[in-house]
Design goal:
Cofactor: Mg(2+)
CATH architecture of the largest domain: 2-Layer Sandwich
Radius of gyration: 28 Å
Pfam families: GGDEF, Response_reg
Oligomer: single chain
Organism: Agrilutibacter solisilvae
GO molecular function, one term: diguanylate cyclase activity
Number of strands: 15
Keywords: Phosphoprotein
Bound molecules: guanosine-5'-triphosphate
Helix content: 40-55%
Length: 412
């Protein structure tokens, strides 16, 4: 049941073994597994041997047991085990699915532990490693700020209060100046735990607080809840800013970010391209709406592959896309969009029934206008010219190289 639920709901490949001997064979393949769920009853090993073997494999271990009495509790507490889940209790399968997902995602999350006490730091860092995080340690506020600048994957900070040089509150205040709550979760930690200190932590921008000494269970719950919230915010942001069909930024996101990209390109020029699939209604009418959706996705993928990191691309609506490319003007802009047009025209789009279709796009380009709206309006007008001129072409205004313009002026 566990294998089916985790496999189906998370799409993770799972291997089921029924003896420690089989587990040994499987785990001999380095890097193949990231998580172990184990029972305590196997034909060829006693519970202690099972736990000792798996906890020595360097990956998170979750015990799924039919019994959770005092003797089991002591065995689990004495070892580096993420959790012990009672089988056959309501919600245990859902909890295991959540746990597997959380531990899988943790592998891509950086966590930073800030504490001047080496023993406290090692304890918290060890617990975070047990839950699969990529852990960085810092022994002062200054070292923490450096670590954050160096490792953009850090999304969780656990900080002590009393530290020489910069205390935990000051560190949080500085962190919040650059890292908002939707990007970074901060948990304060202190032995004092007085009500005013907890409030101070929260007011300075901490998301949560842990009293020292903490229990591993509470530590894991609070850490998980905080990273779950970050994931949730990320999902909501994606829903609000990404186009559902193609995963490209949507029109709203384009206008949110577009002004910034336009400004960034003011010195070296900026090109706006409006791209529209040719005779798209015909594709829908001939092959069906689902094939039309596949075609839109294929064009979106081609656009995503073509753009550079500094560019901004979006699905503008229906079968229309927009690309804002800073630093491009004249012939460079023409080459850039011409190459995109040619790529799309040469790209076969495989349909589920085995057929393959080709399509073309028309692109209108503007490389000079006062303001983003004016650029888009001109690119749109050029798109109309491209359609009227026979489609499958790039039309643009101001797409002459700066050097060519100079030559022209000299001749005049
Ligand atoms: N499958 C699918 N079709 C869509 C989607 N959005 C818009 N359309 C269809 O896209 C078609 C757009 O057709 P038109 O604007 O008439 O233009 P066209 O056929 O592409 O022809 P030209 O632009 O003149 O080359 C319409 O039939 C819309 O219903 C979508 O998300 N999926």
């Amino acid at each position: 049941m566990v294998a089916t639920a985790v496999g189906e709901r998370l799409g993770l490949p799972i291997t089921v073994v029924t003896s420690l001997a089989q587990a040994r064979v499987e785990l001999a393949q380095p890097g193949r597994y990231f998580l172990v769920f184990t029972g305590l009853v196997l034909a060829d090993a006693a519970p202690d041997d099972i736990l000792d073997f798996f906890t020595g494999c360097g990956m998170p271990v979750v015990v799924v047991s039919g019994v959770y009495d005092e003797s089991v509790r002591q065995k689990v507490q004495a070892r580096q085990i993420v959790d012990c889940v009672l089988k056959n209790t309501p919600g245990s399968i859902d909890y295991l699915v959540w746990l597997a997902q959380r531990l899988e995602r943790n592998r891509r999350i950086g966590a930073l532990v800030v504490d001047d006490s080496p023993s406290a730091r090692v304890l918290a860092a060890g617990a975070l490693r047990l839950y699969g995080f990529q852990v960085t340690e810092a022994d002062s506020g200054a070292a923490a700020l450096e670590a954050l600048a160096l490792h953009p994957s850090i999304r969780l900070v656990i900080t002590d209060y009393q530290m020489p040089g910069m205390d935990g509150l000051e560190l949080i205040r500085r962190l919040r100046a650059t890292h908002t709550r939707d990007r970074l979760s901060i948990i304060g930690i202190s032995g004092s735990g007085s009500a005013p200190l907890v409030a101070q932590f929260l007011k300075h921008g901490a998301n949560d607080f842990l009293h020292k000494p903490w229990s591993r269970e509470e530590f894991f719950c609070r850490v998980s809840q905080n990273v779950d919230n970050l994931d949730l915010i990320g999902t909501l942001q994606d829903l609000a800013t990404r186009d559902f069909l193609t995963g490209l930024p949507n029109r709203r996101h384009f206008f949110d970010r577009g002004a910034q990209v336009y400004q960034a390109g003011q010195e070296d020029g900026v090109a706006a391209g409006m791209l529209d699939i040719d005779h798209f209604k015909h594709i829908n009418d001939t092959y069906g709406h689902d094939a039309g959706d596949l075609a839109i996705k294929a064009v979106a993928n081609a656009v995503a592959r073509h753009v550079r990191t500094q560019d901004l691309a979006a699905r503008f609506g229906g079968e229309e896309f927009v690309v804002l490319a800073p630093g491009l003007q004249g012939e460079d802009a023409r080459d850039y969009f011409e190459c995109l047009r040619a790529d799309i025209g040469a790209m076969p789009i495989a349909l589920p029934d085995g057929r393959s279709i080709h399509l073309t796009v028309s692109i209108g380009v503007c490389t000079s206008a006062a303001g983003l709206s004016a650029m888009l309006a001109e690119a749109d007008r050029q798109l109309y010219v491209a359609k009227a001129g026979g489609r499958n072409r790039v039309e643009g205004s101001s797409m002459v190289r700066a050097t060519d313009r100079e030559a022209l002026m000299l001749a005049v």
